[in-house]
């Protein structure tokens, strides 16, 4: 009971939270610097191999455009078509396979996009495009968990949100391509 006199317990908790968040900021900056160094080293390796600058610039957009158009486009279509139908087991099964593949491709695309940034001597993970990619990966992962847990209405709502974030991600990617 005496720990709460004068707000001592509350004050110490606030100090602990501040110290923890300050450490997390330092860890975040350290992680950012380590990742920047790692991807810069990979960029040097790719330059040593002799990959032309034009290929570096358009490789990520072309590969991701094809995966979005094929995997995500067909996967979303199948997901909406199978919604509420009892006889749509095959469509639901194919939807799961396509969207799981799309999540994997997006994770690889995040690495490829980061490498593309590093090869163009840009600072990684600072753009809106990179941040929307992280949001997209988080939402896709959460939606996969919701789909497994059979929360169908929530799964659909998060799926629609994924489509909106994907649209914003594509728009920022197109903007980056022409700058």
TrEMBL record:
Keyword Membrane: yes
InterPro entries in the record: DUF4079 (IPR025067)
Transmembrane segments: 100-118, 124-146, 158-178
Pfam families documented for this protein: DUF4079
Keyword tags: Membrane, Transmembrane, Transmembrane helix
This protein's name: Cytochrome b561 domain-containing protein
Organism expressing this protein natively: Rhodosorus marinus
């Amino acid at each position: 009971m005496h720990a709460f006199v004068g707000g001592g317990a509350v004050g110490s908790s606030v100090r602990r939270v501040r110290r923890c968040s300050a450490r997390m900021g330092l860890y975040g900056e350290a992680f950012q610097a380590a990742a920047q160094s790692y991807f810069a080293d990979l960029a040097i390796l790719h330059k040593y191999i002799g990959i032309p600058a034009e290929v570096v610039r358009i490789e990520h957009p072309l590969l991701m455009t094809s995966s979005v158009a094929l995997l995500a486009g067909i996967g979303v279509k199948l997901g909406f078509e199978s919604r509420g139908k009892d006889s749509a087991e095959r469509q639901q099964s194919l939807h799961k396979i396509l969207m799981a593949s799309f999540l994997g491709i997006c994770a690889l695309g995040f690495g490829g996009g980061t490498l593309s940034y590093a090869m163009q001597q840009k600072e990684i993970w600072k753009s809106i495009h990179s941040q929307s990619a992280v949001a997209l990966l988080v939402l896709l992962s959460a939606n996969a968990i919701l789909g497994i847990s059979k929360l169908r209405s929530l799964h659909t709502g998060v799926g629609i949100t994924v489509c909106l974030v994907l649209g914003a991600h594509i728009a920022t990617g197109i903007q980056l391509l022409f700058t």
